[in-house]
Amino acid sequence: MSDLQRDLRIAVLGVGMMGAFHADALATRTKGARVVVVNDFAAEKAAEVAARVGARVVEDPIAAINAPEVDAVLIATPGKAHAEQVQACLAAGKPVLCEKPLTTDEESSYALVQAEAAVGRPLVQLGFMRRFDAEYAALKDLITSGGLGNPLLVHCTHRNPAVPDFFNSEFMVRDSVVHEVDVARFLLDEEITSVQVLRGVATSSAPEGTWDPMIVVFETESGRIVTDEISVRTGVAYEVRTEVVGETGSAMIGLDQSLVRTSTDGRWGGQITPGFVERFGQAYDTELQRWVAAAKQGTIDGPGVWDGYAAVAVCEAGVKAVQTGEKVAVALKAKP
């Protein structure tokens, strides 16, 4: 049997909410994939997920990466562990799908850009799943084909019903706004050069010192403006929308994933997805399937290490903008 015909044998590092979701998806909904190793600092959780997907537990993450039966790695550990773990994947020459962030600081992210360049082929893919969502892909195609003329503005909305108290303003930028950072770069195909954060009145459910909601304003290389309303304690549902305004038209996605209705008493409405899995579940599945197919050939199919680095750099500037209330420039290092 050729390498392309046999299952890709995968180690899943970190089996919290996201990692367990990915492990189950790989085991039950992804063709040509098999989870063979599971690692997590919580031994009981690792054992539970490993038993469910038919894998063995390896207590040390680096040992899990280097296990002889592992062909590729999925990293869903906390961000502070990513730098060492991705570096180990590069050293082993194994394709890796790393959940965002690439790392927790710009310097270590760029070190991974350089490390992959030294390997000589793309091995690091970032888990920016919105690029695999049918609506975002259609919007990208519309822009690329010139269907909106020159895109002038992008407006994003990102609302969560509730988050834990540790989800402060800086965490909102690093964990939520990071998706809109990648969306803007993906749709407009250019880098972000500055970030500004408008901090208004906070919702009463936000912890003291947390600005929620915020308006984040990006400026791109060509001078285009991208706005992002980030609000993570709405108490309503999971709402993610994106509108692109061009010279000859505009288009919006994420309005509703179901029928919008009106009634004789003057009410109208539909349904909003309760969580990220309902909204982007298919995008995650598509992302995994395409990554598995590419990893069998020793490469990736999606946003790469540079995209991860650029997102970290923009979010670092975003955190400074939250802290200072000032417009902060983004200066990316040289692209290999």
Write the CATH fold name of the largest domain.
Dihydrodipicolinate Reductase, domain 2
What is the CATH architecture term of the largest domain? 2-Layer Sandwich
Structural class per helix/strand content? Answer: alpha/beta
Task: Please compute the radius of gyration using only Cα atoms.
Answer: 20 Å
| Main beta-sheet strand count, sense and barrel state | 7 strands, mixed
End-to-end separation: 37 Å
Number of helices: 9
Describe the global form.
Answer: globular
Tally of DSSP β-strands:
15
SSE series: EHEHEHEHEHEHEHEEEEEEEHHE
User: What is the CATH H-level superfamily of the largest domain?
Assistant: Dihydrodipicolinate Reductase, domain 2
β-strand percent reads 15-25%
CATH hierarchy class name of the largest domain: Alpha Beta
| Strands in their spatial order, largest beta sheet | 12-11-7-10-9-8-15
Unreliable stretches covering 5 or more consecutive residues: 258-263
Tally of individual domains:
2
- Taking all residues together, what is the mean pLDDT? 93
Proportion of helical residues: 25-40%
Features:
336 residues; seven-stranded mixed beta sheet; alpha/beta; six-stranded parallel beta sheet; NAD(P)-bd_dom_sf; NAD; Dihydrodipicolinate Reductase, domain 2; 9 helices; 15 strands; Rossmann fold; single chain; 2 domains
Short description:
The chain has 336 residues and is α/β, with parallel strands linked by helices.
Task: Describe the overall structure.
- By secondary structure, this protein is an alpha/beta fold.
- It has two domains: 8-129 and 282-304, NAD(P)-binding Rossmann-like Domain (Rossmann fold), CATH 3.40.50; 131-280 and 313-329, Dihydrodipicolinate Reductase, domain 2 (2-Layer Sandwich).
- The protein contains nine helices and 15 strands.
- The protein has a seven-stranded mixed beta sheet with strand order 12-11-7-10-9-8-15, covered by helices on one side. The protein has a six-stranded parallel beta sheet with strand order 3-2-1-4-5-6, with helices on both faces. A two-stranded antiparallel sheet has the order 13-14.
- α4 packs parallel to α5 (106-119), α5 (106-119) packs antiparallel against α9 (305-324) and α7 packs across α9 (305-324).
